[in-house]
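Side project, low priority. Logging it here so it doesn't get lost.
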Amino acid sequence: MIATRRALLGGFAVLPLAGVLARDDRDGQADAALDAQFARHAPPAMAAAVVGRDGPIWSGVRGVRRAGADEPATLDQLWHLGSNGKAMTAVLYARLVEQGRAKWGATLSELFPGVAIDPALQAVTIDDLLGHRSGLADRDLITRGVMMAAHADTRSTRDQRVELAAMALGRTPTGTRGAFAYGNGNYILAGAAVERLVDAAWEATIQSEVFDPLGMASVGHGAPKGDNPWGHQSVGDQPAPVDPAGIADNPPPFGPAGRMHMTVTDYGKFLRLYLTEGGGLLRPGTMARLTTPHAGAPPAYAYGWGVQPGPQLGHDGSNTLWHVTARVLPARGVAVLSVANHHGRGQPANHAMVEALTTLYAPG
């Protein structure tokens, strides 16, 4: 069961840039690449897409919604993005900064007035949280007991997040501020900070401030239900579907760290922000900040993205039942993504698919 696992939300990965290949009929070759990776790695289903500055360029899907059944997966269905939602939380905070409702460099003491905060955390900033350099460690905060209690909690998601934040803030961090340590607790705290700033639930705020302006009508939270692909766990060497009516995702308070689902088209709308200097949602200077790595020792990580020269932005997400890989190349005006409804088989399939799409549509 997901709730018994400590590595609950996927981390990030940046893949090496592809080399140049002279290609004709790129869309046909993209279809062939999808066929090849689907056949080689055999996730129950996978979908992939290419987005440019002007909108969608190519997309494709293969497989079935559930292993052992015959309902085909389609492009208009919903796919879980795991930790690739972190960049969306960062964009939300940036939006509040531009509106004058938040500020960069705000400390935890400023963001959580009246809350008991360990002295080692008081000067930690929102930028430290969004760059995974706060000193907080998931192994201390996101324990099996915390997970099980959160799944059983019937209070509002916001009330639960307040409690999680207070718990995290009151403990002495075991890590070192400034040193990179990927942690979902950082983004849970960032979401709780947003809620205090606007006095509204993070879910409602990101909908009104990010998803609605971008026309992302399919976004939801948790494992997708209804006529959509299910996530799969491994039973022996075979993928087994996990009913979304049960425990098929991390608990609701974890939303800001990555608990969203949407169509591949809507995810592409979000990725276009990084190809269009904010696309009217954010100012170019703000987008430059969001894609500039934080100072400190490697790896190079910005606000929800791993960064390589080019620049190239990359991130992986998984709730252990799904896997997604995205790569954005702003200078080349192209973003590519691949998602599958099984983590173990989906990870290599998605990495290879993103590499193939980069070679086809953004060579260099």
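Brief comment: The first strand starts at residue 45 and ends at 52.
Revisit when time allows.
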